């Protein structure tokens, strides 16, 4: 597990975390900002496009986005920052899973870029807070996994309900 580099100057911290930051920047860009919309200055990523896939697009997006939060946990960001990051992920997942309106929300919310900004702000200017304890880190990891599992269960229930609308019980 990488050790916090909070005692180092900002440039040294950025260098120490460069490989992780590069991966997170690339992933955030891909999910939230990689596709220019013609005739506008606006960009979207593949997150709202994945949300269009019935039965699993939002889950796939959640799974990919969870990587950013899990890396933040590994980097031992402060508890308050981790809570904000999980909140961004939860908001994106819950509202983003609403058909059509959730996809529109995903276009504007950009949870991954929000989480990248939180992570970069901490690395550039770490607040003198104590890093989260092991119990909190475990609970945050469980929360991220729990959000994913909860979304899977919810998706299964919704699909079951939709199926029941089209398949009537046999009478006889």
Describe this structure in words.
The protein is mainly α. It has one domain. Helices cover 69% and strands 2% of the residues. It has eight helices and two strands. It has helices at residues 10-16, 18-32, 46-50, 57-74, 79-96, 101-109, 111-124, 134-166, and strands spanning 35-36, 43-44. A two-stranded antiparallel ribbon has the order 1-2. A hairpin with a 6-residue loop joins strand 1 and strand 2 (43-44). Helix 2 packs antiparallel against helix 4 (57-74) and helix 4 (57-74) runs antiparallel to helix 8 (134-166). The longest helix has 33 residues, at 134-166. It is flat and about 70 Å long. The model is unreliable at 1-6 (pLDDT under 50).
